[in-house]
Amino acid sequence: MEFEMKMPDLATTGSAMMLIRWLAKPGEPVQRGQKLLEVETEKAAMEVESTATGILRETRFSPGDSVCAGDIIAIIETAEVAMPTPPAALTVAPTVPAAQSPAPTSKKTGGMFARNREAAAKTVPRGVVSTKSVTGIPLSLARRAAGRRLQHSKQTIPHFYLQTSANAGAMIARRKAALQEKLAWEAFFVYAAGRMLAKFEQLTCRFENETLLPANTSAIGVVADIEGDLFVIPVGAPAQKTIEAISSEIHAAAAALRHNEPGSRKSQSGCFTITNLGGANVETFTAIINPPEAAILAIGKIHPVVMPRGETGFAVEQRVNLTLSVDHRVVSGKYAADFLSAVVAEIEHL
What we know:
The strands form four sheets. The protein has a six-stranded mixed sheet, with helices on both faces. Strand 10 and strand 11 form a beta hairpin. The chain is α+β, with helices and mostly antiparallel strands. The protein has two domains: 2-77, CATH 2.40.50.100; 154-348, Chloramphenicol acetyltransferase-like domain (Chloramphenicol Acetyltransferase, 2-Layer Sandwich), CATH 3.30.559.10. It contains six helices and 16 strands. The longest helix is centred in the middle third of the chain and has 16 residues, at 141-156.
């Protein structure tokens, strides 16, 4: 018989999910409990298991479509009568796939008065702004979730900002000497920040209920822009890794995100974040803290700067601008300044 598999709730409180990929094709046998598809919620990517054993005959949604709890997502031909899945906690009507535009309305032919009304609607008097509706650009679940999280951060966290620069000469030399793939620029800062956070542990705390709670991880996140969606690549225990190992980890995670590999978008917590716009020709920028973290380090591009040498001398250095955004509830300005100075010293003496 045919079994209609419905989308489980996944504790998303009724919000839509985006289908990332099917892990089985129509015509293939599937087992109950087998991973059948991957979806993206507002918080993370999740894998959905088959609720029946049989042959996958039909899939009702395509990658990129919005899916709600309770939607029939697949038809599985079973040999026996399958027990239906419990009804979803919330019954939500099927939505129009996010990647599609609303269907155009059909034009109805009318008489002379209808044609006159059409002509009048097309004529906009001088000085009057047309109120014709504009189709908006649909946002992915990842962008919607990031927007809400960062808006909340900006509205509730008292940010303050510290700016400085570092001599990038040691980084450039280390990168040129690399024997295999080019080292990711972010790897240098993950390495330096990881070592210094071990000494400035208060910066890894989060503010909650008028207290500071220590992070349960030493991972440092690296922001990655994948086709307009922002993801954070976690690098675990960076203080125990070499720059080369950190770079390989970042490259591998970014490649997995670009190819939508299963599990690559699962949300993982960190204690600090690094974001880099140097490759976009940006010299300096300020970043918004990624809650519940207490700080984020923004990296600008490396550029030549004339620096004084002695009383009368000058030299041209390749320097990189750094901006540290900090939650003032967690640390003081002096504490954050000492941390940033320590990161600069670490970068300049690789």
